Amino acid sequence: MTETTENFPDTVADCAALFGFEPPWRVPAFRVPEAHVPEYDPDYQFDAEVTLALLMGFAHNRRVYLHGPHGSGKSSHIEQIAARLNWPCVRVNLDGHVTRADLIGRDMVVVREGLQVTEFVPGILVWALERPVALVFDEYDVGRPDVMFVVQRLLESNGHLTLLDQNRVITPHPAFRLFATANTAGQGDFSGLYAGTQVLNQAQLDRWQVIVKQGYPDPEREAAILCSRLPGLKQATAYCMVQLAGLCRQAFAQGDLSSLMTLRTLISWAENLELLQQPAPALRLAFLNRCDEEEQPLIAEIYYRCFAEELLPSDVHPA
Questions:
Q1: CA-to-CA distance for 79 and 41, rounded, in angstroms?
Q2: Residues 271, 150: one domain?
Q3: CATH value at residue 29
Q4: Quick check: 70 and 117 in contact, CB under 8 A?
Q5: Each residue of 9-61: pLDDT tens digit?
Q6: Helix axes 263-276, 235-253, angle to 10 degrees
Q7: How many other CB atoms sit within 10 Å of the CB of residue 4?
Q8: pTM value?
Q9: N or C: which end of the chain has fewer CB within 10 A?
Q10: Which Gene3D superfamilies match (predicted)?
Q11: Residue 241: what pLDDT?
């Protein structure tokens, strides 16, 4: 993206053509994409409810917290909306090593006209605030609580950022937008799937103006996603794969499986199938090999129900 801070949305998006529905308000967009606009995926399948919530963020500067199970396409959803609006978008993965200085900035030694000088180098948050950028905090519930309080004031629509060591108050660019994705709703994780997640401070969680959950797509849309990503995949095979994924998710919910088959896993299975031309070994490489051995006979039973054939002997060794 160019370094100008004066860029503003200069057109209105045709949401009916882009997303399949028309929201009750106009959605601004950019005519010309910049370098930080995400890559456009023409086959992406949008969830109308989640898309409407995210468009509220882009159109009305609402702070949107998007949560849901892993592999459901949360970050991709935000990016693909940004791609269609030509809105620059930057993702920050909040692992446990991200510090306040990474977000705000620090004094660093730089070379200016052949001389070493010390100057303040802004962090990613300060950089994004001054530009027309949609900033996405990935894995928000994994970020260190003391670090995440940096964004407390910014979670209000007209929030500003105060740089204490610079004696400067930053007013966000009018086209700056803030989003977050997480696996939990901020209440912590009791399933054991998401190690390292935090219980979010309720005062901060209350400042997110739009909170929406994204689950896995319904079977029809999930099959459509597989077929659009892999045009050579037979529709009947895609439906069998989606049926197996649904039954595995039911087994997980009932406590019979400890591994969850996600949409991402389904796509990996389909990609492996395209290379191997056999669903059983493709399933083993995408999912079965990370499942507990005692649970593999159950997966073999589900596989038979969906594909009407046995898994190869090398795929599963029933007890």
A1: 10
A2: no
A3: 3.40.50.300
A4: no
A5: 999 999 999 999 999 999 999 999 999 999 999 888 899 999 999 999 999 99
A6: 140
A7: 9
A8: 0.83
A9: C
A10: P-loop containing nucleotide triphosphate hydrolases (3.40.50.300)
A11: 96
Nearest Cα neighbor of 36 from 91, 76, 98 is 91
Q: Is a pLDDT exceeding 50 seen at residue 113?
A: yes
Dihedral sign for Cα atoms in the order 262, 263, 268, 273: positive
Residues 268 and 168 in one domain: no
What integer best gives the mean pLDDT of the chain?
Answer: 87
Q: Is residue 316 part of a domain?
A: no
**């594909």: which residue's tokens?**
307
Instruction: Write the DSSP symbol of residue 199.
Output: B
What mean pLDDT is predicted for residues 246-275?
92
Pair of tokens at residue 186: 């901020």
pLDDT tens for each residue of 286-311: 999 989 889 999 999 999 999 988 87
Give how many domains the chain has, as a whole number: 2
* DSSP state letter for 187: B
Find all residues with CB under 8 Å of 297, minimum gap 6, and list them.
316, 318, 319
Q: To which residue do tokens 């860029």 refer? A: 7
Written as one letter, the residue type at 250 is Q
The first and second tokens of residue 202, run together, are: 């309720």
